[in-house]
Amino acid sequence: MTSPSAREAEAACLLSLEGALAAGEPPDLVGYTGEVLEGALQALVKRHGAAAAPLLRAIADGARAKPTRKAAKRALYRLAQAGVALPLSAPAPIAPVVRRRAEQPIRAWLSGIDGTGSRAVWILFEGGLGGQLQLCSLLLNDEAGVLEAAGGSITRKRLEAELRHLREHQKLPWVETDPARASALVGEALALHARMGSEPPPEFSRWRRFFALPPARPADDAAQAGEVDSHLLDRSAELLELPELAGWFVDPGQIHEDALALLQARESRLVVSDQIKGEREAAIVDAVIDKQFTGEARRRWARRLAEMALIFRSTGREEAARLAGGAAAALADPSRTARHIPFVRALAMRGLEIGTEVALGRVKLPEVSRAPTRT
């Protein structure tokens, strides 16, 4: 026998069902027990017969609670047994033929770093409409951010052809890397723009959303101060003999007066000993180092060396990687005097030598400037 409270609940549930039937919308049946629902639905079917079928179908297909859906399906079954033609369930939405997926970086490549602190970065994204491939081609600089941006949709066959062409004609090393790491380098370039209040070139606008949330920089690409092998450090100037570092030197445009001083010292008619000449040249080199290897510039050179150490290691050149890594660690150590790092002295001297060529008119300054420029 049904208790008074159950009968009241069933009456309330039936009232809700009646209102929903009149309004043509599914009712809120939350809180009713399965027994109450069964009774109310039976009463609804008894009163309205086939007219209740659309509401029952809507409840059976769309109710949140499983017991509610089951009770509605049982009521539909009883109607069907009575010979009532039931409405069909609403068809599932048809998935679009072409899906749009968020673009994700799946492959990436980096070049070595040139003498201006610039490097090429390629990142291959997959996603968008139909999961297409898109190649983002950038030129990044550690003082200016994004210098150039290009790219677009590409096929795998075309990509492989472009990579072969790069490996055959690129002067700097070109290696594949972790896409997250390459994206992090782009994130750093964008952060640099934000600090300087500058903007990437307009061509980058189509790629900006791909780097909306740049990942954190991997731990292995920053120069870390630490114990340095003194023998490797003594040999660090040998790095400038490598073809990849042929363009590495202090910007002649920033040491014009020092280059003139070196030129005058060498052309002086005063008869002085070789020792005094050497001391004068050393003093000029010291002055250049003191001006050009201050905190931020020093960290920048250390980072370039650390990056090149990774490039050398990726191309199987362990000796060059160790030399670059040792020089990077020395530069990253603020307690170590920059004047005493052979690699730094070689950088300064090469810049001075080129500066004297500029002063003599043999070389044009724009041809050897290390200042980053947009094409």
Topology summary:
Elements: H1 4-23, H2 34-48, H3 53-62, H4 66-81, E1 100-111, E2 118-129, E3 132-141, E4 145-153, H5 156-169, E5 174-177, H6 179-196, H7 230-234, H8 256-267, H9 274-292, H10 295-314, H11 318-332, H12 342-359, H13 365-368
Antiparallel strand pairs: 1-2, 1-5, 2-3, 3-4
Helix pairs in contact: 1-2, 2-4, 3-4, 8-9, 8-12, 9-12, 10-11
Characteristics of this structure?
5 strands, rod-shaped, 375 residues, alpha+beta
- Give the overall shape: rod-shaped
Total number of helical segments? 13
The residue fraction in helices comes out at: 40-55%
Structural class, from helix and strand content?
A: alpha+beta
* Mean pLDDT across all amino acids: 87
Write out the strand line-up for the largest beta sheet, numbering strands in chain order: 4-3-2-1-5
Largest sheet: 5 strands, antiparallel
Low-confidence stretches: none
Radius of gyration: 37 Å
User: Could you tell me how far the N terminus lies from the C terminus, measured between alpha carbons in angstroms?
Assistant: 90 Å
Beta-strand content estimate: 5-15%
Number of strand elements: 5
Q: Return the domain count.
A: 3
**Could you state the order of secondary-structure elements as H and E?**
HHHHEEEEHEHHHHHHHH
